[in-house]
Amino acid sequence: MLGLAIAVWTIGDVGLAEIAQTAQRMGPGGFVAICAWSLVTSWLLGGAWQAAAPGEPQPPLLLFAWARLVRDAVSNLLPFSELGGIYIGVRTLIRAAVPAPRVYASFVVDLTTEMASQLVYTLFSLLAMAPLLMGASAAGLRPAIIGGTAVMVGCIFLFMRMQKVVLALAARIAARFLPEATVLSEVEAELSRIYAQRGRVLTAFLFNLAAWTTSGMSAWFVLKFMGSDIALWKVLSLEGIIFALRSMAFVIPGAIGVQEAAYLLVAPLFGLAPEAALALSLAKRARDLVIGVLALLGWQIRESRDILARP
């Protein structure tokens, strides 16, 4: 509710009429184009997850792309945090007969490579905007941007360092109190097996890095459709900062309010007008809504069929 209030205040402060007028320049064709481009990003994310899940037989790429699409739809549209989307994405693969230990272990590897690739992308963003951060106009935002990025980097390194330790500890606790529980030990073994295949881990990293890049490029397409003449590197840098701030707000469903406030504060550093920045944010929300609703409908139809098929 607080995030929604911030979003409404941000839009109202700039002016809904000005934002809507800017967004209308994109037109229906432009909106369809960015929706189609978003599916390319989902395909890349699916490829990253599949690369992190080696095994025989190898589940199809389309299944992993679908699981990732549903995961993002739940995170963006339903009143859950990112954890709710993760649960549904993992459940989707398990219900498709992918072995549970492989799903859990591959998710950990995929999330690790996704965070590592985001770190690379964010560092590129900070490097690209370094001259802007040093300027007087960014004095008020400099601590928030650098501090938020530092916290994100710390969380990423902590997650990478502790994942095997935490899994091993959880397996020992489960074996002590729940002797019949073997899933955690199987996940730990599967995780070690996946990390031993460094080529697969590198492939997952590259797929995730490509996904971050294509997602940033989609914002550049939106601004082009709206008639904004801004360099691609500036948009990629802007999106890197927005992604980092959104990641820090993972407990807020869809990062509602955080995304809008971030665009309003950071975009002017790149010469982007506030109404254009918020029009970009709303266009991305509308894209996520359209694709997300279709994904949620498909997910619910599949769940309903499974329920009706039970004896």
TrEMBL record:
Chain segments annotated as transmembrane: 27-45, 119-138, 144-160, 204-223, 235-256, 262-283
Q: What is this protein called?
A: HpnL family protein
Does the entry feature the keyword Phosphoprotein, yes or no?
no
> Which superkingdom?
Bacteria
Q: What is its main location?
A: membrane
Signal peptide region: none
Entry keyword set: Cell membrane, Membrane, Transmembrane, Transmembrane helix
A GO CC annotation recorded here is: plasma membrane
Q: Where in the cell is it found?
A: Cell membrane
- Pfam families listed in its UniProt record: LPG_synthase_TM
Q: Which organism is it from?
A: Novosphingobium sediminis
Q: How does it sit in the membrane?
A: Multi-pass membrane protein
